Amino acid sequence: MPLPKAELHLHIEGTLEPELAFELASRNAVVLPCSTTEELRRAYLFDDLQSFLDLYYALMAVLVTEDDFDRLADAYLARAAAQGVRHAEIFFDPQAHTARGVPLGTVVEGLARALDRSEERHGISTQLIMCFLRDESAESAMRTLEAARPYLHRITAVGLDSAEVGHPPSKFREVYDAARALGLRAVAHAGEEGPPAYIWEALDILRVERVDHGLRSLEDPELVKRLVRDQVPLTLCPLSNVRLRAVDVLEDHPLRAMMDAGLLVTVNSDDPAYFGGYVGDTFHAVREALGLGQEQLRELARNSFRASFLDHDEKRRQAYLAEVDAYVF
Ligand code: HPA
Ligand SMILES: [Zn+2]
């Protein structure tokens, strides 16, 4: 049995495995840039975030019907369950679908179908986080928030993703204020490729409760002090950082140094179909590469539940934490 954990940084579109992509392409008469799954997998050699995003958005064209989104999410939940995931807070990118003519309702209702069965079928509690594409305008993000009003009961928080550099969090101040007024919580990608200043902006301007990645935090000692003082969770994605060349090799990843600095870090898979592993694989890889011991792995698992948006169900959080404490390696 794998170590129980929560996954807090997972783009559902990034769980689209080549096999499912080809199946849906054929069903929906969508032409893909590659003709075999092997050829597609060979395309997964990325230079940076943008080179990945180009393929990520291209492949999404196969997601058309509610059933497609249900299949996608159900496949992720099955894989996650096998790797010990007990709770998942799942990102989706509405603008990447509405821009192709797929209605927001199709996306949310399709994902919700899988999520509604998740506890019974996979033993995983779930939440949805709606991300805005930061390389699109703030007006487009605001229109997306407006369009999401009928589905807000399904959505826990807003997030911010896509190409980071040149699109600082401050661009989305009004959107985040509006989201908070609607009762949504807030997270944002910051400091993946962008500078520590973007992490400050996410904290002070967007008032996020968690920072997604926050990889570059250690470059700014004042920022580290702030993150440690407030115990702001960082959702690290070590395999993603290697594949997108934010770090050269896993052995150089700052995860361990960040734990030693007192930061509340978690380990997540980001886009597992593209980056070579789901979250259990990621725990495995960092254990090997960074020489983490059992107590550090347990701490990462505990952090994942501490950092989760389970505040409305504290009993469940405590039950998950008890599972971590009772886990025998
Ligand atoms: O790792 C990522 N970073 C930014 N945007 C993204 N959208 C999907 N994955 C990512
Ligand atoms: Zn991400």
TrEMBL record:
Per UniProt, Zn(2+) binds at: H9, H11, H189, D270
To which species is this protein native?
A: Streptomyces albidochromogenes
Which CDD domains does the entry mention?
ADA
Q: Which Pfam families match?
A: A_deaminase
- Keywords, ordered alphabetically: Hydrolase, Metal-binding, Nucleotide metabolism, Zinc
At the top of the EC hierarchy, this enzyme's class is hydrolase
Q: Which InterPro entries match?
A: A_deaminase_dom, ADE, Ado/ade_deaminase, Metal_Hydrolase
User: Which superkingdom heads the taxonomic lineage of this protein's source?
Assistant: Bacteria
Q: Which cofactor does it need?
A: Zn(2+)
The entry assigns this protein to a family as follows: Belongs to the metallo-dependent hydrolases superfamily. Adenosine and AMP deaminases family. Adenine deaminase type 2 subfamily.
What biological function has been recorded for the protein in this entry?
Catalyzes the hydrolytic deamination of adenine to hypoxanthine. Plays an important role in the purine salvage pathway and in nitrogen catabolism.
Catalytic activity, EC: 3.5.4.2
- Catalytic positions are E192
Name the site position(s) for Important for catalytic activity: H213
Kindly indicate where the leader peptide sits in this chain: none
Known catalytic reactions:
adenine + H2O + H(+) = hypoxanthine + NH4(+)
Protein name listed in UniProt: Adenine deaminase
Query: How cofactor binds (record note)?
Result: Binds 1 zinc ion per subunit.
Annotated substrate binding sites: D271
Q: Name one GO molecular function term.
A: hydrolase activity
Residues of the Adenosine deaminase domain: 4-317
